[in-house]
């Protein structure tokens, strides 16, 4: 290989070297035996400068040094001899990782920038640098490696800006550990278990301390029995460390200078295996993570381990304490985010559908946003059987993230369920939700608390398993996708409507859309996190969803299919929640239902009894059940004829372990249960219905009402 330095002005080596100012070697080259050249810095005033922290190394494709400029005093002892393997500069444990990165840059041409790395000096000591791997201008020329010595004050500033860029507590602890590695050979962060789980922390008694390892660097194979991230420290170790850093009830750093002292403090061989990272590690500095307060609260502690020949100086201990003090609030912010994240997740999962019943099959997937995003959002989905045999499917997306959105989400979800169970139509339920959102945003009511839910969306679908139809209303939500039994798929045609809480001038009546959904149909309700992509139009995202859902086979397990749909469409790094509800329509078999339309005459109750009795004999219904159904049907039809106009509809449904009797009429009066007095002529009918049934209720239709009653078979 040609060992002559490239003269191209665009060479990364030359570009980095130009930043060295008067350190750049010019003209003189010192020949090196075997391979390449080693550039020698000129003599002069620049040679005495002590503030230079930048160096550069040129490598060939075999990862051997071609030339280098590491002549600044801070790099003394780093022997980058031309022709020697670059990995000779690395600690043995770091060789595989760095070699993999070097090879990756050679293959892809994409740089690795600003990675914290340790380099090994000739005397065995190590220097922490920021290492960047840059591809050469011409691929055949190999690589350029730039190194920036991490001067302590510069490192403090860099660490403070790097820590806290994530709201994930594990990543925050890892960033802190990586920053602490500049002062030692091994760095670990151990957090109080309550901090790790996001719970509240207070000044605890020493005997109740429980520490969990949150971060550990560098990444290498550790001795058997050593505590690694995710493991709890032994109880004895937790108490010892807690007592050490909380001497005299005041959190303070401690240093155990050598291996004998470490063994004397820990005592047990089991604790030594758990806490001491290896034979070479002798001394340790323990820095508590302290939140200021009265009394101060210890969130955990950081451990920095060193070899015996490199004791901690007072100035270094001061730097360590300063770094931890500057960044501990990021750990607490991550803890608070973790706590809020868990609370919202618990509420989200509490609202997920449990089961669909025998007339519809339900599967749902809720995938929260990544932990370091703005927080779990207000997406919610629910499915529940209504008492009259129908099934409600509800999906919503509350504006915002965090506890404010979660509280509104829970309130709207429970209100929707209560109103639907009371028999209200989807459009009427949305009208109530619209008023609720408006009320929550009314600052004079005192309920807003700095959070606005205006613009939240919701879609409600009611499935009737007898007529195999779906009634649907939407408030600004994305249209559901329907897959017919023959495999055709597409979004439902729904008239656009503003979201909940729109200004009064923009409010319009909510529409009710009715669709046929024969058995075998598949309906997908979802939130925007599943289909939104900044690079494509939202309609294209919905089209992709339709394509994926249409590939679900009628015999596929629905829960597995739902997970497949989400994995195929959801982005890798979610900035928003992803919610999907799949509903496969089954409905009642034709022989399990019967409907009659009777004129509103005095003989209607008798006619209903004859029809129902004949049907229940064909169904082989028990005599006592048949008598109860005939009695309650007679009472309901009598009330319908007495108080309503127009024809009366009677329906009987064989629904699993019960019979469901429905009587519909054109009246708008609501039947109310009351005890009849001794001399009252009426009022006892509904009381009889109440005593004969397991439950009963009223639902409203576009032409009147339906009174339904359920009787155990």
Description of the molecule:
- Helix content is 30%, strand content 26%.
- With 713 residues, the chain is of the alpha+beta class.
- It has a five-stranded antiparallel beta sheet with strand order 4-3-7-6-5, with helices on both faces. The chain has a five-stranded antiparallel beta sheet with strand order 9-8-12-11-10. The chain has a five-stranded antiparallel beta sheet with strand order 13-22-21-18-19, covered by helices on one side.
- The longest helix is centred in the middle third of the chain and has 38 residues, at 314-351.
- Residues 1-9, 21-50 and 445-449 have low confidence and may be disordered.
Write the layout of secondary structure elements.
Elements: H1 12-18, E1 29-31, E2 37-39, E3 54-59, E4 65-69, H2 95-108, E5 112-120, E6 126-135, E7 143-149, H3 152-162, H4 169-180, E8 186-192, H5 193-196, E9 211-217, H6 235-245, E10 254-256, H7 259-266, H8 269-275, E11 281-291, E12 297-307, H9 314-351, E13 360-367, E14 377-385, E15 391-401, H10 402-421, H11 426-440, E16 457-464, E17 469-475, E18 481-483, E19 489-491, E20 513-516, E21 522-526, H12 538-550, H13 558-569, E22 578-585, E23 593-598, H14 604-618, H15 623-643, E24 648-655, E25 658-665, H16 685-692, E26 695-700, E27 705-712
Antiparallel strand pairs: 1-2, 3-4, 3-7, 5-6, 6-7, 8-9, 8-12, 10-11, 11-12, 13-22, 14-15, 15-16, 16-17, 17-20, 18-19, 18-21, 21-22, 23-24, 24-25, 25-27, 26-27
Helix pairs in contact: 3-9, 4-9, 9-10, 10-11, 12-13, 14-15, 15-16
């Amino acid at each position: 290989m040609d060992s002559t330095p490239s003269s191209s002005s665009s060479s990364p080596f030359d570009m980095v070297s130009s930043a060295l100012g008067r350190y750049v070697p010019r003209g003189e080259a010192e020949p090196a035996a075997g391979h390449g050249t080693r550039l020698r810095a000129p003599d002069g005033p620049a040679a005495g400068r002590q503030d230079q922290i930048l160096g550069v190394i040129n490598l060939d494709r075999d990862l051997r040094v071609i030339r280098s400029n590491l002549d600044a005093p801070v790099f003394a002892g780093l022997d980058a001899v031309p022709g020697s393997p670059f990995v000779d500069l690395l600690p043995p444990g770091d060789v595989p990782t760095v070699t993999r990165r070097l090879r990756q840059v050679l293959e892809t041409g994409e740089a690795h920038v600003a990675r914290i790395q340790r380099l090994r000096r000739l005397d065995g000591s190590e220097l922490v640098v920021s290492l960047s791997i840059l591809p050469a201008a011409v691929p055949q020329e190999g690589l350029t490696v730039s190194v920036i010595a991490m001067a302590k004050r510069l490192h403090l500033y860099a660490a403070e800006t790097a820590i806290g860029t994530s709201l994930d507590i594990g990543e925050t602890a890892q960033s802190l550990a990586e920053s602490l590695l500049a002062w030692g050979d091994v760095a670990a962060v151990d957090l109080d278990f309550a901090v790790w789980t996001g719970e509240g922390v207070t000044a605890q008694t020493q005997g109740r301390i429980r520490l969990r390892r949150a971060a550990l660097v560098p990444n290498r194979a550790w001795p058997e029995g050593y505590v690694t991230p995710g493991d709890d420290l032994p109880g004895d170790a937790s108490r010892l460390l807690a007592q050490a850093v909380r001497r005299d009830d005041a959190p303070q750093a401690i240093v155990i200078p050598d291996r004998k002292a470490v063994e004397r403090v820990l005592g047990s061989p089991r604790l030594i295996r758990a806490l001491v990272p290896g034979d070479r590690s002798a001394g340790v500095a323990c820095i508590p993570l302290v939140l200021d307060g009265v009394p101060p609260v210890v969130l955990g502690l950081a451990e920095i381990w060193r070899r015996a020949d490199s004791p901690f100086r007072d100035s270094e201990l001061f730097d360590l304490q300063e770094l931890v003090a500057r960044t501990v609030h990021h750990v607490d912010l991550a803890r608070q985010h973790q706590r809020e994240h868990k609370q919202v997740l618990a509420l989200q999962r509490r609202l997920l559908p449990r089961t669909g019943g025998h007339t519809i099959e339900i599967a749902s997937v809720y995938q929260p946003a990544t932990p370091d995003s703005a927080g779990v959002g207000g997406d919610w989905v629910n499915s529940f059987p209504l008492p009259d045999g129908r099934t409600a499917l509800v999906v919503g997306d509350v504006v915002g993230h965090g506890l404010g959105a979660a509280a509104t989400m829970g309130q709207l979800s429970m209100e929707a369920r209560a109103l639907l169970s009371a028999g209200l139509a989807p459009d009427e339920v949305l009208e109530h939700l619209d008023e609720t959102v408006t009320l929550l945003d009314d600052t004079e009511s005192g309920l807003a608390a700095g959070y606005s839910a205006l613009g939240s969306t919701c879609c409600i679908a009611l499935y009737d398993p007898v007529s195999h139809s779906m009634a649907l209303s939407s408030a600004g939500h994305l249209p559901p996708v329907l897959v017919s039994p023959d495999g055709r798929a597409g979004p439902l045609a729904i008239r656009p409507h503003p979201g909940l809480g729109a200004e009064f001038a923009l409010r319009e009546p909510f529409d009710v859309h009715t669709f046929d959904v024969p058995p075998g149909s598949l309906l997908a309700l979802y939130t925007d996190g599943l289909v939104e992509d900044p690079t494509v139009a939202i309609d294209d995202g919905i089209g992709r969803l339709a394509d994926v859902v249409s590939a679900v086979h009628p015999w596929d397990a629905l829960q597995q299919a739902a997970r497949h749909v989400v994995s195929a469409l959801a982005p890798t790094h979610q900035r928003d929640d992803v919610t999907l509800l799949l509903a496969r329509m089954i409905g009642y078999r034709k022989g399990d239902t019967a409907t009659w339309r009777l004129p509103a005459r005095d003989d209607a109750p008798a006619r209903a009894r004859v029809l129902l009795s004949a049907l229940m004999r064909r169904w082989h219904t028990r005599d006592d059940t048949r008598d109860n159904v005939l009695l309650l049907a007679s009472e309901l039809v009598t009330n319908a004829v007495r108080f309503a106009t127009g024809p009366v509809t009677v329906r009987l449904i064989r629904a699993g372990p019960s019979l469901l009797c429905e009587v519909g009429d054109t009246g708008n009066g609501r039947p109310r249960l009351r005890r009849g007095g001794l001399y009252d002529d009426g009022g006892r009918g509904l009381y009889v219905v109440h005593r004969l049934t397991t439950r009963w209720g009223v639902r409203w239709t576009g032409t009147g009402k339906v009174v339904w009653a359920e009787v155990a078979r």
